[in-house]
Amino acid sequence: MKKILMTIVAIVAALPMVAQPKLTKDNIDEVLAAMTLEEKATLVVGSGWGSMIAGITGGSQILVSGAAGTTQAIPRLGIPNTVLADGPAGLRINPTREGTKQTFYCTGFPVGTAIASSWDVELVENMTKAMGNEVLEYGVDVLLAPGQNIHRNPLCGRNFEYFSEDPVLSGNISAAYVKGVQLNGVGVSVKHFAANNQETARDHNDAQISARALREIYLKNFEIAVRESDPWTVMSSYNKINGKYTQQSYDLLTKALREDWGFNGIVMTDWGAKDGTVDAVKAGNDLMEPGMPFETQRIIDAVKDGSLPMADLDRNVRRMLEYIVRTPRFNGYKYSDKPDLKAHAKAARAAATESMVLLKNEGDVLPLDGVKNIALFGATSIDFVAGGTGSGNVNKAYVVNMVEGLENAGFKLDESLKDFYKKYVDFAKIDPKDIPLGGSVGILLGEAKVDEAPVSRSFVESKVAANDAAIVIIGRNSGEGADRLVENDFDLSAAERSLLVNVCNAFHLAGKKVIVVLNIGGVIETASWKAMPDAILLAWQPGQEGGDAIADVLTGKVNPSGKLPMTFPVQFVDHRSSFNFPLGNEPTGRSDFSFIGDDTRTTVNHVDYTKYEEDIWVGYRWFDTFGKEVSYPFGFGLSYTSFDYSKPTVTVAKDGTVTANVLVTNTGKVAGKEAVGLYVSAPAGGLEKPAKELKAFAKTRLLAPGESQVLSMKLSAYDLASFNEAANRWETAAGTYTFGFGRNVSDIPVSFKAVIKAAQNFSVSE
Ligand code: BGC
User: Fold this and answer.
1) Residue pair 568/631 in contact by the 8 Å Cβ criterion
2) Among 86, 93, 200, which residue has the most ligand 1 atoms within 8 Å of its CB, making it the best to mutate?
3) ∠ CA 538-544-545 to the nearest 5 degrees?
């Protein structure tokens, strides 16, 4: 009898091995128990480059052409593939497919830096809600966005994808972005976690950062996004932090991300296999992307030889299953391949106009009044930059350039100039395929920007008589795989400078105005030339509707309300980080990508570490605290109207919650919106701190002339804390804090002092 019983027990115990449950939301444990080691190792490694289904699922089939990757299916257990595709300025997939005339274009929205300049979380959420609908309707499960590395230095080639030099602005804009996309029932991947602040040697660079700067600057924005918006996934970065690849850092991926901040989604690697797959599994990096068979094998071998506990693998597999059951593909969503691109174009245009920053408007030359005939100068009028290059480049159906935008708005453009620039761009434009990689040319080039056309003084002078005003447009492009340069990039080129001088001289001599439009993705030098034109509109890289959006602002259809999400320094070297930013970068040494056998392998770059010597003194924290002159301070931005700030109040509740209110009144003649920053100065005596730090921000609705609105901002005691490295904890000092309500970091019209009675400490995972 005992023997029979034992046999039954043995059979029952063996049953899960042969049972084949199909995955549902409620049987994850059962499915996990039914998986073989090979299946588990397969699920945590993607199917390879592109949206190819390969490996264990057999054969090869493209799911969504142009997507960046897929997770593998295990049909036996009802586990489907899921599809991951790039952002952040819209969905990146191939616009055409073999065998069909149908097109699959996506909307090119304004870039990350632009939308951060709106300081408007509602606007961002509305925009990304439209973006996420394209993700859903094109059959993609996760958008590989937003990118939110801190603008440590103006030359990072991917800054345009990222939001700000400040973690509070960056984190809150990111949270809004995530919420908007995920409202569609698809996921995001917040990237690149973390400290991927340069493109030079990005795949192996060691970012050497103090614990304090890491927590307060480079992780804080991720912390805010995770806490506020519950992203489905996070993408670990290519680089190392303090000697450890982020993908393999338990401290980062498990202690900080999950234990401290409560993240409960999956972490995937950025695109490329590294040595140390097993360490990545242990650290809590759940998915290797794009995934190579040898990674699966490493995991299998390590479990077999005992160097990888099955429990670690099971933990990651469970998280993968929890992710998969959320996806539209798992839930059988019948996507249309026909998102409403017209409606989304409107959302892109609205976001672009709200993100533009008016840097100068002498004599209220804008909005344009009584101007009909315009002399539009600059190759960028035709060679317009909707967004940057690399994986962040969206395949959009069209781009409304500056010529089209102004003509659509009813202006009459100088035909001879139009013709000249059209011919020049046709002549000078190089097919991206013919451009050798290197210098500041990155990978996956979407567009190659032409240099400014050299034009003579007499040529410029000949355009004055027939036109009422001149607009000079200056453009910049950059992207993944390379950092920008100082010469001819941060600084104006000789041709741009002489164009500006000649246009301003000639038109001013005739009493006519000159407006500069900046179609750029990151900071450029402005101090040396900003006195020349009458107005400067920073349009950023405003997406496919850019030309129309610029015209909306120039005509006053939309009153600009964007503000700078970073400092514009006088010179590049004024940034403290400029001393150790890799200048004149060599081609990125993607040596561990060589296995894909394509041409992405270039000369190996010998830069392999970056000391973040500036510590917490990033952006305005440096300029403002040490009284360094800037060209435009963080938060700067003008309007066609004016705003008065009054009645500041700050109350501190028993639990330390701070409520800060200010009354904003439109004192000008047209309707407008105003973004207000809450800049906090901490009491002396605790840790050394920046003179002021942005701790919250808010924006008014459209206020009619004379109309007021109370803006209310809330903070917790934790939000006021700084990180004490020695004690390994966050500390909020007791004492009197000054809460400044600022137009920008250097212009704080009203402030209020409030006392935090008791000091508070907040521990982090040991
Ligand atoms: C980029 C990521 C991108 C991925 C997939 C990587 O090279 O760094 O931002 O999501 O490729 O295309």
Assistant:
1) yes
2) 86
3) 70
**Ligand 1 closest atom vs CA 189:** 10
- Cα 393 from chain centre: 12
Q: Does residue 191's CB lie within 6 angstroms of at least one atom of ligand 1?
A: yes
Count how many Cα atoms sit within 13 Å of the Cα of residue 427 in the half-sphere of its side chain: 10
Q: Which of the listed residues 188, 205, 247, 480 should we mutate to test ligand 1's pocket, taking the one with most ligand atoms within 8 A of CB?
A: 480
Work out the mean pLDDT of the chain and round it to a whole number.
92
- Rounded to an integer, what distance in angstroms lies between the CA atom of residue 72 and that of residue 45? 7
Residue 314 has pLDDT above 70, yes or no: yes
DSSP string, 649-681: EEEE-TT--EEEEEEEEE-SSS-B--EEEEEEE
Count Cα atoms within 13 angstroms, Cβ side, for 213.
22
**708-715/735-742 β-pairing:** unpaired
Q: How many angstroms does the Cα of residue 391 sit away from the middle of ligand 1?
A: 6
Q: How confident is the model at residue 3 (pLDDT cuts 50, 70, 90)?
A: low
Tell me what pLDDT residue 608 has: 82
Q: What is the pLDDT of residues 166-193, one digit of tens each?
A: 999 999 999 999 999 999 999 999 999 9
Helical H runs in 291-434? 293-304, 310-324, 341-355, 402-408, 415-428
391 lines ligand 1 (CB under 6 A): yes
pLDDT reported for residue 754: 98
Mean pLDDT value across residues 431-442: 62
DSSP 8-class letter at 543? -
Query: Residue 709 corresponds to which tokens in the numbers above?
Result: 């609105």
Residue nearest to atom 8 of ligand 1 (CA): 270
The pLDDT, as a whole number, for residue 8 is 47
Predicted local distance difference test score (pLDDT) of residue 56: 44
The DSSP code for 251 is I
Residue-range domains of the chain with CATH: 2-324 (3.20.20.300), 353-568 (3.40.50.1700), 572-632 (no CATH), 643-763 (2.60.40.10)
> Mean pLDDT, to the nearest integer, of 601-622?
76
- Percentage of the chain beyond pLDDT 70 is 91
Structure-block tokens of residue 45: 């490694």
Dist. CA 480 → ligand 1 center (Å): 8
Does the pLDDT at position 591 exceed 50?
no
Is there an atom of ligand 1 within 6 Å of 86 CB? yes
Task: Tell me, in angstroms, the distance from the centre of ligand 1 to residue 31's CA.
Answer: 31
Q: In sequence order, what DSSP letters do the residues of 615-645 get, joined into one string? A: TT--THHHHHHTT--EEE-TT--B-SS-EEE
In this structure, are residues 650 and 754 in contact, taking their beta carbons and an 8 Å threshold?
A: yes
pTM: 0.94
Q: How many H helices and E strands in the chain?
A: 19, 30
Q: Is 520 a pocket residue for ligand 1 (Cβ < 6 Å)?
A: no
What whole-number percentage of the chain has pLDDT above 90? 84
The tokens 């032409």 sit on which residue? 450
Mean of the pLDDT values across residues 306-311? Answer: 98
60/99 Cα distance (integer angstroms) = 17
Q: What is the pLDDT of residue 9?
A: 46
Residue 439 pLDDT level (bands cut at 50, 70, 90) = low
209 CB contacts (<8 Å, ≥6 apart)?
195, 218, 241, 242, 612
Give the closest residue (by CA) to ligand 1 atom 7.
271
The arithmetic mean of pLDDT across residues 509-515, rounded, is 98
Q: What's the rounded Cα separation, in Å, for the pair 247 and 483? A: 23
